[in-house]
Amino acid sequence: MLRKISILCAVLALAGCDKPSSSDNEVHMDMPRANANAIYAPPPEMRSPPPPFVPPPDIIIGGRALFSLQHDLTLTMPHDSVAARFAAARDACLKDKALQCILTSASLTVEQTVSARLEVALPHDKVAPFESRLMKRLPQDGAGKVDVTSSSTTTQNETSAAADAERELAQAREYRDQLEELATRPNLTVDEVIKIHTELQQAQEALDAAEAAKRASDSKIVLERMNISFEEAAVPVTTDAFAGFWQNAHDVFMASVADMLLRLVNALPWLPIALVLAGIAARFMGRVRVVRTRRKAASGTATENTA
């Protein structure tokens, strides 16, 4: 009997050893436990402050401030050369690789007059060659010429914006790297893995947006914007002295006729009143003539009777 009891105890002890203990399933990490609806936050030791901002060497030279430049240029030319010059400038930006030109916008308007507008972005050392292309003489110019009617350059300080873009990019990249390191730790539960990968996906999206903002900020500094307006020059009208005299006489005559018609139109509302007053005056004068006639006849009759 004692032998059976000892065998039973040995079997129970072996069965207890085969069960995993609760301490073996515990995750040895500092990430806090959270329910399924909570938003994952990294542990405090992973929330280190971002590194200090260091200006990128590719856009800062000698520690100077960063500026973006925009050039506005208006050109006037003969009617036939507006479309041709616009097409030549657009094709040069698109096809000439040496200019390193980026076409932002292009539009051509053909109505009573022809006009066009071109917006491009160029490196600083390519602005002058592109302006020379714009002023190059074309066969469509004929006897006319190209004139620069207005030219202006606007600058804007981009130092603070560039620093902010660089800082946000560094923070987003560091946070993404920390999450990737956290995802490689062993003994993660299924719930923790899901939360880490969800947060990692959001961190990657934030990193992509920060990289796009950084590229846009660098582009403003490295490239200069140019807005070119192509306009048709006014054609002067020449006339001789005799033709000018008759033209002025015609203008004076038409102005007098127009003034007379305007006065007549303004007088139309008073026309019925004037007709009524004229009728009353005519009746009154007729009555006066009748009375005078009767008086003369009466005085003549009285004279005859006296005689």
Mean pLDDT: 75
By CATH, the topology of the domain at 68-158 is: Alpha-Beta Plaits
| Widest sheet, order of strands | 2-3-5-1-4
Distance between the first and last residues' Cα: 196 Å
Largest sheet: 5 strands, mixed
Helix content: 40-55%
User: Proportion of β residues?
Assistant: 15-25%
Task: Please count the helical segments.
Answer: 7
Instruction: Just name the CATH architecture of the domain at 68-158.
Output: 2-Layer Sandwich
Q: Measured on Cα atoms, how large is the radius of gyration? A: 48 Å
State the name of the first-level CATH class of the domain at 68-158: Alpha Beta
Spell the H/E element sequence.
HEHEEHEHHEHH
How would you portray this structure in words?
The chain has helices at residues 2-18, 81-95, 127-135, 159-183, 190-222, 241-267, 271-306; strands spanning 67-77, 102-110, 114-123, 147-157, 223-232. With 307 residues, the protein is of the alpha+beta class. Strands 2-3-5-1-4 form a 5-stranded mixed sheet. Helix 4 runs antiparallel to helix 5 (190-222). The longest helix is centred in the last third of the chain and has 36 residues, at 271-306. It is elongated. The N and C termini lie far apart (196 Å).
